[in-house]
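Section 3.1: Structural characterization of target chains.
Under the original work plan, the team committed to producing a structural model for every single-chain target entering the pipeline before any wet-lab resources were allocated. The record below documents one such target. The sequence was received from the expression subgroup and is listed exactly as submitted; it comprises 239 residues.
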Amino acid sequence: MARIRLYIDQPLVAGQPVPLDGAQAHYLSGVMRLRAGDAVTVFNGRDGAWAATLAEAGKHGGTLDVGAQTAPQQDPPDLWLVFAPIKKARTDFIVEKAAEMGAARIQPVSTDHTNSERIRQDRLQAHAVEAAEQCGGTFVPPVADLVPLSQLLDGWDPARRILWADEARVGPAEALAGLPPGPWAILIGPEGGFSAVERAHLSRLRFVTPVSLGPRILRADTAAVAALALWQAALGDWR
């Protein structure tokens, strides 16, 4: 399999050329120094991984020739990550690790104590693409735009349960093995924690399950990784 993997938002069919935009062409020819005929692995998030060769690349674009499929599509379990954005680099880290660890959707939310009032959704989506390219995945989780947590909860489908990483529950990490399967979301709060009003709201919702992530208070980015790992090991595709 080719060393370079590239996400292409195009249908992939054996024997069919696919266009490259200027940034992709520059990455392959200018950054990675590929030449015509060199091999690339491509995926579109829907149809698995495919062998391809670089046909041409210039300043304004290029073309890949698609060969045979090399791996089937591997979709993650139906798990969302809902989190409050923090500092830029650490928010990038959360998105990258969520993509690597098998989140099906990434939903930033604003809370009473959220440090960031806005995000660059396109930049975070690019980080999710890069993570899938680098970790060998064939699925790219969509990164939604920032919404208020209260608005998200008001329209929430109760069939999707929420695992709330409650920073107030410092103690032994709680086993998740007894929780029901099905669609889930993990909720990670901001650096300052949820406000009293938000905590009261979450506590009233029957589809929300609060859990401890262990005996230490974790930073928000660490908490996201820990919660994803616990859920994947108990209910996801790590079993």
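The domain at 5-71 is CATH 2.40.240.20 (Ribosomal Protein L25; Chain P).
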